[in-house]
Amino acid sequence: MAASSANQAPKAPSKGGRLLRVFALLLACGLALAGGLVVSIGPQRALSLLPLGDAEAAPEEATADAGPEAAPSADTPAKDNVVVTPFQEIIVNITATTATGRQTSRFLKLNIALAYDATLPGADNIETRKLFLRDSFQEYLRQLNETDLQGSIGLVRLKAELLRRARAISESDAPQQFLIADLIIQ
């Protein structure tokens, strides 16, 4: 009797067990996809994609359907209120790595301008704190490596960091974006 049970092959999983494994795999993939979406676009935008039917969504939809004469949303300032203020040319040293792995110094030349909404509270702080903004930008730029500025993602990160610093120093959400006229690494 013991010899006959040793010769038997292990039982294949039942159909219900296979369905449970497939469902668990699909659930894990769906959760990973949702997590990636939240990380890439942020939690607020991810929640705005869900049709929750809350009361806040109805007024936004009403203004969006009202046509071109509708008031601009909080995210996009009206074009008449946008002020562009240029900064003096910034030249700093950044580090770079040669092909042999040696650390070297490079020059970064940057000409930028800040576009901000003059109607938002705290917008007057931008012009009065312009020297503090420039100092903060130089402090950040000196910490960069040459690889930090490579490709389009490098420009996006640079603009985002400069915008974050501009909003912090001006204590306002008035700064909207940075315009880069020149970015030269030599």
UniProtKB/TrEMBL annotation:
It is found in: Cell inner membrane; Cell membrane. Pfam families: FliL (PF03748). GO terms for biological process: bacterial-type flagellum-dependent cell motility; chemotaxis. InterPro entries: FliL (IPR005503). Its main location: membrane. The keyword Membrane applies. The keyword Cell inner membrane applies. It is a single-pass membrane protein. Residues 58-78 are annotated as: Disordered. Residues 64-75 have a biased composition (Low complexity). One of its GO terms (cellular component) is bacterial-type flagellum basal body. Keywords: Cell inner membrane, Cell membrane, Cell projection, Chemotaxis, Cilium, Flagellar rotation, Flagellum, Membrane, Transmembrane, Transmembrane helix. Controls the rotational direction of flagella during chemotaxis. Belongs to the FliL family. This is Flagellar protein FliL. The lineage of its organism: Bacteria, Pseudomonadati, Pseudomonadota, Alphaproteobacteria, Rhodobacterales.
